[in-house]
TrEMBL record:
GO MF, any single term: 4 iron, 4 sulfur cluster binding
Cofactor(s) the protein requires to work: [4Fe-4S] cluster
UniProt-recorded name of the protein: CDK5 regulatory subunit-associated protein 1-like protein
Organism listed in the record: Euroglyphus maynei
Location of the TRAM domain: 395-461
Amino acid sequence: MNVNDTEIASSILEQHDYEIVNDIDDANIVFLMTCAIRENAENKVWAKLYDLDKAKRMGQLRKYGLLGCMAERLKAKIVEQLPSIDVVAGPDSYRHLPKLLAINSLHGQSAINVLLSLDETYADIIPRNQSKHSAFVSITRGCNNMCSYCIVPFTRGRERSRSIDSILKEVENKIDSGVKEIILLGQNVNSYRDYSVHNLSNDEDKNQTLNELQSPLADGFQTLYRSKPGGAGFDQLLRQVAGLDPNVRIRFTSPHPKDFNDSVLRVIADHPNIAKGLHLPVQSGSNFVLERMRRGYTRDAYLQLVKRIRHYIPNCGLSSDFICGFCDETDDDHRQTVDIIQNVGYYIAYIFAYSMRDKTYAYHHLNDNVPQSIKIQRLIELNQVYRQLSTEMNRQLIGQRQLILVEGVSKKSPQQLYGRNEANQKVIIPKLSNVNYMIGDFLDVEIIDFTPVTLMARPIRRTSITEFYTSKQ
């Protein structure tokens, strides 16, 4: 989301004759785009802000500002600690950046706008794309889930969706520019619903969507909020986006397990260009902890969803998020999380020690009583278990042919490139003179080696999504 927000803010500034530069040393104005979901990330931002403050006082920088979730969360506290800051703008205030800069220039004081919106989606803004082969397209903003540990509803506001028409227009624009991969974005991307749509394309879609309206959530999942009925859901959006070009890969992030109903799974299974790698954040394997997190599901409901996913999409690769040491988490709760990693098997896992954020339900009602040393021990163990299992899963991929999109030059060697497979795993490939390919191409590759988190492959040929899957039939 930070990348997409940066692209939106850059586009708005360019429309008002500001020039975006690639090197910070060439900039007169520097904005930091921020996230507030974890304390460690905020600490890094504070350090960078003090560096910018120093650069301004030394005459090396004209202006600097803070954008995004951290700006909304801290508001006036930032100005209190850094009176020299020029602009503070929350995630719904990027349209006002030119005005805020003008106010700051006129009055010489910090200009602030951190008001949250009920309807801002930036639907009419074409983001300034930073990649030639992959593009982010925001489809929802905000979140209604109110998980007890999460600050996102307070920094991003209530959930709202863009219209399908505006999304399709942006996706078509990206495809026309040569993009090979579209990544749909939202804090809770698969709860998307366009309430402006009433008439569906045919009777089959209409009947299917009406059934989903009666049971929009995955079996065994529930929410703290009541969904408004009607409109077109994520399944219909995904079907239309995937249908624009069968040779453009479609991904989406970040989803919630509750919104993977069978209709969504069928759409993913039916379209070869929708990546068969799903992010399925579980956070904990313990029912006790899940209830305290207010996640809206049990361990068994989650595992049943995994079974349904593998029924509809047999070769689907899964990734997940985990939080260690949440309020009142016991050793037994932790062992249940270890067990769910071993039970499911994830190619990619994002594991974090819990850090309490103010404004959240946990901050007001729960006790952050797991010692930091225990959190770190559990973090280390979960990482070890995940890496051991991912190593064995990657070993089983040796000799398998996979489709990757080449994304760039490897950091370790200029003689190597890297891409990503459908499960979003990084795949390292050598530069070969006998195979004609470049960054932005789809490649048919054979997996030849692995680490716990990376695959190595032999390039076979340039291909397309359609060609690759037709040849496998």
